[in-house]
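[Q] Does anyone have a clean structure-token version of this?
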Amino acid sequence: MTSHSAGGDSPPGPQSIQAIRLRHPWRTVFATVLIIIVALFLYDMAFNRPVYNWSEVGKYLFDTRIVTGAWYTLQLTVYSMIIAIVLGVSIAVMRQSPNPVVAAVAWVYLWLFRGTPVYVQLVFWGLVPTIYKSIDLGIPFTEAIVSLNTKDLLSYFTLAIIGLALNEAAYMAEIVRAGLLSVDKGQNEASIALGLGWWHTMSRVILPQAMRVIIPPTGNEVISMLKTTSLVTAVPFTLDLYGRQRDIAAVTYQPVPMLIVASLWYLTVTSILMVGQYYLEKHFAKGVEQRPDVMKPTVETQAIGVVGTDDPTTPTYPSGGGETIVPPHNRPGGGA
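[A] Here you go.
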């Protein structure tokens, strides 16, 4: 309750607040120490470690074999991710199927490919031409009509793509399923009420909203796939970036410079993919980050006196501190 002094003086007006910035000296000290450590590490790499052999790095950075290996790595990444995304969407839909057999098959697929290391899976795919030497087509329990040699039909490049794609599809299925579940069920019900079919509901209502959740982890999976291609040597496929640098290092006996060359190429391609991921996220996040402006007061905030205190007919009572108190009656909201 606001009160006034007996002399009728108005309360003092609001005063501006002078904020004093809180100092954090230890942050500056910590940042300085980090800069010194990084500078010492870079100096040591440049001048005190001949094993890095930077001239060798420059010599093979744009070598034809390295560039060709980077191209194979990029192909493995793109082809595997395309197959993984298509298969992952199918498995995500199967997981939500009311048919228990279909849902169980999808669950077993996820359990198998997420529960075993990708390197082990690639080794098995490399052994497919040995396990299944031929692919026979025909009527069961009769003589084969067509018999194909597995080694001629499936190259190591194809087997590497299949192994990477099947493993990645298990993770993409969970990403897509999480995106679909993030959309409110009311969106689906509203689409049905408007007479939209399943395809139009998914393509025009559900998926555009789910993409906001799907894109970020999918971008991470693409970057992860780029680095996972270094494991295709288990198939064995040795024409990728990691395989080519290893072949060159086996001849020059300079493994460290060649590892630096491969790392620089991986970093370059990863940086490009991160830029693409940023713009994709920005595109599918349109309208999500927009929020209405905070409503501002129409009048300046100031001290407000109690209604009726300046009226001489309003009875007041003295308080122990020398102030006058306005009773609750004869005021808006008060008693009679």
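[Q] Thanks! Anything notable?
[A] The chain has a mean pLDDT of 82.
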